[in-house]
């Protein structure tokens, strides 16, 4: 059995996530303390006692989800299930930062600060209300690319997330994305759902955020990860620190090639995926990508203990 550790992206956040891990594992509590210190505020209090609207703000959700994933990672390590258990790491969008931190490529404190910068930069790149994203259900990537091209009409409209064979997300100017949703339904999509997001992620409109991340990443030490990262924009393994830095910048405006990333790991012999942190969204996608693959969660003490039991 070959295992990959995968880390969730935005949308998985819930109030209270990670709290039980901190009560069961002191090393998990230490992660939240470290993130709080790095940000100079009590993000953990917001995660455990705040309101979901504030937590869902991009600048909060990104470091919060990373902290929860890293706390779960420390709980696994406490049970003797460290990064060496994985053949690869991968993450969905912001989850790529969690994956790199878990694999020792970027320090926890630097990752928290980078994600706070990334969240703010992505939020401010496009004025609220001018961008949008929509999930197109029931059309494959090529069909959605054609829909986006037809809908653009001189505006930005791109396939942003290739999540699984049944779901591709488009991102861009609000009017263009709304047109794409209508065109997709005409072309046979089962549904086209406008997403409750605050900005159009992973499209050309995010270029100001990519520029901000290039500057932020230039000042951070990146080491070779302990196990290879399957990068979002390439859907292939990478270990070189300079290459990782470049791909993290590209990721802001580039597509999240999640379906291909899972297929690439399966082609390299991965048979089991451990979803480290909040929620089960990635496990659901993996099931739709390849039903022969197994997914297990590591988001609660019970999950961690079940994995430790074998």
**Total count of strands:** 10
**What radius of gyration results from the CA coordinates?**
18 Å
Low-confidence region ranges: none
Strand count, sense and barrel status of the largest sheet are: 4 strands, parallel
Helix content: 40-55%
Side by side, the strands of the main sheet go 2-1-9-10
Question: In terms of structural class, how would the helical and strand content be classed?
Answer: alpha/beta
Shape: globular
Strand content: 15-25%
Distance between the termini: 12 Å
Total count of helical runs of at least 4 residues: 14
Order of helices and strands: EHHHHHEHHEHEEHEHEEHHEHEH
Q: What's the assembly state of these chains? A: single chain
Would you tell me the overall average pLDDT?
Answer: 97
Notes on the structure:
With 310 residues, the chain is α/β, with parallel strands linked by helices. Helix content is 50%, strand content 16%. It has 14 helices and 10 strands. Helix 2 packs antiparallel against helix 5, helix 5 runs parallel beside helix 6 and helix 8 packs across helix 9. The longest helix is centred in the first third of the chain and has 21 residues. The protein is globular and about 55 Å long. The mean pLDDT is 97.
